[in-house]
Amino acid sequence: MKKSILFFVCILLAMGSCTTGSKDNSDNETTEQGTDKNGSKGQTAKVDKSTQMTDDYIIGRVGNIYDAVFEEYNKAEEDESIPQSSPDEKYCSEDWNKTVMDVSDFDQQHNPDDIGFFEADYWVMGQDCEELSVSDIKVISHDKDNAVVELTLHNFGESTHIRLEMKYERNDWQIDNFIDVDNDFDWKKEMKEYMK
């Protein structure tokens, strides 16, 4: 009997997890998220587009993105593997993903036996990672389509000041560029220069 109840509960949980994702309700677009704007996991909250345009929402979105990415990186590190899914596909703009793919294709054609452009990881601003976290997330500017967010990235006990350029796509804010402010390194600009 206990096994049957446990099996039934597992099925209900699996069915509930299938309902998360994005929804488009024409004039009043809403997004269902697996975390609320304060970062509480396990809760699904409907968020309308006007709420998504607030500084608080954008700050929460960036915090949630980094929490999810770092959770995957930390798990991969424990398992001595690499992350199995690309956070870029989930959390970055179409243009960012296209640019990364173009650089990968360029490297396959021109540098097949070399590391190529990606000697470091823009999510952690380094080749390796340990004790990952972010702090001091703040919105510098935003309109209905674009936002600029700054934060402090912590990796191996060191801090790096990061600027994110974001776009509103797929009913939510997506990262369109990573800029390492401390080392004056604009990832998208450098990728485009690299392919010239």
Q: What share of residues is helical? A: 25-40%
Order of helices and strands: HEEEHHHHEEEEEH
Q: What's the gyration radius in Å?
A: 19 Å
Number of strands: 8
Q: How confident is the prediction overall: mean pLDDT?
A: 80
Structural class: alpha+beta
Q: Which descriptor suits the 3D outline?
A: globular
Taking the sheet with the most strands, its summary is: 5 strands, antiparallel
In short:
By secondary structure, the chain is of the alpha+beta class. Helix content is about 40%, strand content about 30%. The longest helix has 24 residues, at about 55-80.
Q: Can you walk through the features of this model?
A:
This protein is α+β, with helices and mostly antiparallel strands and 196 residues long. The chain is 38% helix and 31% strand. The chain contains six helices and eight strands. It has helices at 2-17, 49-52, 55-78, 87-91, 94-110, 187-194, and strands spanning 21-23, 30-35, 41-48, 133-142, 146-155, 158-169, 172-180, 185-186. The strands form two sheets. A five-stranded antiparallel sheet has the order 4-5-6-7-8. Strands 1-2-3 form a three-stranded antiparallel sheet. Strand 1 and strand 2 form a beta hairpin. The longest helix has 24 residues, at 55-78. The chain is globular and about 50 Å long. The relative contact order is 0.12.
Keywords:
single chain; disordered N terminus; 3-stranded antiparallel β-sheet; 6 helices; 5-stranded antiparallel β-sheet; alpha+beta; 196 residues
